[in-house]
């Protein structure tokens, strides 16, 4: 059995100010989860979101539901 490794990426909207997260969306189809981590601590803890929850979160961001 082979295990696919996460391919981490930051959003193109990241301004390199240090407050970034990285996402490994390549695991969504095979594992049903989207891992997320702090870009400043790549060896630290990782959160794993269900793909449905992650999709709803991204849609909310695009719709402006999380404005400050």
Spatial ordering of strands, largest sheet: 1-2-3
| Computed structural class | alpha+beta
Mean pLDDT: 87
Total beta strand runs: 3
Domain module count: 1
Distance between the termini: 45 Å
What are the low-pLDDT stretches, counting only 5+ consecutive residues below 50?
none
Biggest pleated sheet: 3 strands, antiparallel
Q: Determine Rg (CA atoms, Å).
A: 13 Å
What is the global morphology?
A: globular
Helices and strands, in order, run as EHEEH
Keywords:
alpha+beta; three-stranded antiparallel beta sheet; 2 helices; 21% strand
Summarize the model shown.
The protein is an alpha+beta fold and 68 residues long. The chain has two helices and three strands. A three-stranded antiparallel beta sheet has the order 1-2-3.
Task: Describe what this molecule looks like in 3D.
The chain has 68 residues and is α+β, with helices and mostly antiparallel strands. The chain has one domain. It has helices spanning 28-31, 51-63, and strands at residues 21-23, 33-38, 46-50.
């Amino acid at each position: 059995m082979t295990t696919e490794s996460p391919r981490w990426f930051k959003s193109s909207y990241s301004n390199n100010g240090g407050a970034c997260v990285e996402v490994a969306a390549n695991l969504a189809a095979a594992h049903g989860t989207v891992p997320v981590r702090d870009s400043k601590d790549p060896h630290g803890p990782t959160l794993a979101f269900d793909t449905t929850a992650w999709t709803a979160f991204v849609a909310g961001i695009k719709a402006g539901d999380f404005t400050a």
